[in-house]
Design brief:
With about 280 residues, the chain is α+β, with helices and mostly antiparallel strands. It is built from seven helices and eleven strands. A hairpin with a 5-residue loop joins strand 8 (about 165-170) and strand 9 (about 175).
C-alpha cells in the first residue's frame, strides 16, 4: 500500500466521521506518529501468538557484533560492551558466544580452550548490585545478563548521520527525509555481564526491531496521475490498522467526543487477552 493510498483511505474515514479538515502537513505528522504508536502497541504483545509475530516481521532483523571489554567496572563483574545498530528500536533476544579454558587437561597437560553459546537474560538497574554476590543468581559465562544503556555524552556524534532522520537544509532548519529510518540521536550500548568469570566474550548476536521508515509526500505527489509515493513496508492489514490509529489521533487533537465510540468500532484485530 502506498502513502497516497493511505491518505485517500484516511479521507474516507474522516468523511464518514465528519472529522476536521485534513491538511497534508498534519497528515504527515500524525501518520508517522500513528506508525510509532502501532508498533509500540504490537510490541507489548509481541510473540504471544503467530499473528502478533507476523504483524512486525518486516521490522525484525539480526546483527552479530564484536564486543569490547569495559575497564571501569566498580563491581566485581566482567563486563563487555557492544554498540547496538543505528536503527535499533526494541530488543527481542540476545545471545553471546564465550571462549575460555575447560577444566579438563589435554594430553600435553594444557587446558582445553572451548567455545560455548549462552542466551542472555535481561538485567534491571535495581537488581544489578544484588545479584553480583548472590550464588544462585550471579552472572557467569553460562548465565550472562544484558543491560541496555545510553551514551549521553554531548561530544558524541549522532548515531548515524546517513541513516538519521534529521538533516539540515540550506536555510538551517530541520527536515525529515523519506526512506530514512527514525534512528536514535545518541549511541545505544548493550552490556554483557558475566560476573567474576575470566572467559572472553567473542561475539554478541542481537535480534531486534528496527525503527520504521519516515514517510512523507508533497502536494505535487497528490496531484500526479501516477502514484509514485512511498510504499509502506508493512502488510496491508497493518496499514489499515495504522489508518485507524491516525483517525483516533486526529479526533484526539480536535478534542472530539466521538473518540470513545470510534475506537471500538474500528478495532478490526482482536488483542490477545481481551474479551
Amino acid at each position: 500500500m502506498t502513502l497516497r493510498q493511505c491518505y485517500e483511505f484516511a479521507l474516507i474515514e474522516c468523511n464518514k466521521l465528519k472529522a476536521p479538515a485534513l491538511l497534508l502537513e498534519d497528515y504527515i505528522y500524525l501518520f508517522n506518529k500513528a506508525i510509532q504508536q502501532k508498533i509500540n502497541e504490537i510490541y507489548n504483545r509481541y510473540d504471544i501468538n503467530q499473528q502478533s509475530s507476523d504483524d512486525l516481521r518486516v521490522l525484525q532483523t539480526t546483527a552479530t557484533i564484536i564486543p569490547k571489554r569495559k575497564e571501569d567496572s566498580m563491581l566485581n563483574d566482567n563486563i563487555w560492551v557492544v554498540e547496538l545498530p543505528k536503527d535499533y528500536l526494541h530488543l527481542l533476544n540476545c545471545v553471546a558466544e564465550f571462549e575460555g579454558n575447560n577444566s579438563n587437561f589435554d594430553r600435553c597437560g594444557g587446558m582445553n580452550k572451548i567455545t560455548i553459546i549462552s542466551n542472555c537474560q535481561r538485567m534491571t538497574a535495581d537488581i544489578q548490585g544484588g545479584i553480583i554476590n548472590n550464588y544462585y543468581m550471579k552472572p557467569s559465562h553460562k548465565k550472562p545478563y544484558y543491560y541496555i544503556i545510553n551514551n549521553n555524552n554531548p561530544k558524541d556524534d549522532v548515531t548515524n548521520p546517513e541513516m538519521d532522520s534529521e538533516i539540515e537544509n540550506k536555510q538551517g532548519s530541520s527536515e525529515k527525509e523519506k526512506y530514512k529510518r527514525i534512528s536514535n540521536q545518541s549511541t545505544v550500548k548493550l552490556e554483557i555481564h558475566i560476573g567474576d568469570s575470566n572467559w572472553t566474550t567473542t561475539k554478541v548476536q542481537v535480534t531486534y526491531l528496527k525503527s520504521p521508515m519516515y514517510v512523507t509526500m508533497t502536494q505535487e505527489d497528490l496531484l500526479e496521475i501516477d502514484d509514485n509515493t512511498q510504499v509502506l513496508e508493512f502488510p496491508d492489514y497493518i496499514c489499515y490498522e495504522i489508518i485507524n490509529t491516525y483517525v483516533k489521533l486526529l479526533l484526539e487533537n480536535a478534542s472530539d467526543p466521538r473518540l470513545q465510540t470510534n475506537i471500538p468500532v474500528n478495532q478490526t484485530i482482536a488483542i490477545p487477552g481481551n474479551n
